[in-house]
Design brief:
Blueprint lengths: L2 H26 L3 H24 L5 H31 L7
Length: 98
């Protein structure tokens, strides 16, 4: 294994850790707002680390560009969906946890 392989494994494990942390936040936090925050922040970072780890293994610049485009689209979709869910919760007067 080369140094790039080790760095790639570290990034992939870091991405898996943040995905797990986001999932635990979704399951453990008390209200919709804190769950959204935990899920979107941790999953975006987890996806970023995973994509960076995968990009190190690629030999084609077009594949790297495709991964970056996927990352950007998922970031935009995640932010939009989180905003819509929070807005719907506010309109239904879902209370904050105290």
């Amino acid at each position: 294994m080369t140094v790039i392989d080790y760095v790639s494994v570290i990034l992939l494990l870091g991405g898996a850790f943040f995905f797990l942390a986001g999932t635990l936040g979704l399951l453990r936090f008390p209200d919709v707002y804190t769950r959204l925050h935990a899920l979107t922040k941790a999953d975006n970072l987890g996806l970023g680390l995973t994509i960076l780890g995968l990009m190190l293994q690629l030999e084609s610049w077009t594949a790297v560009g495709k991964l970056l485009l996927i990352w950007l689209l998922v970031l935009l979709a995640g932010a939009s969906v989180a905003h819509l869910i929070a807005r719907g919760a506010l309109q239904k007067k879902v209370r904050l946890w105290k």
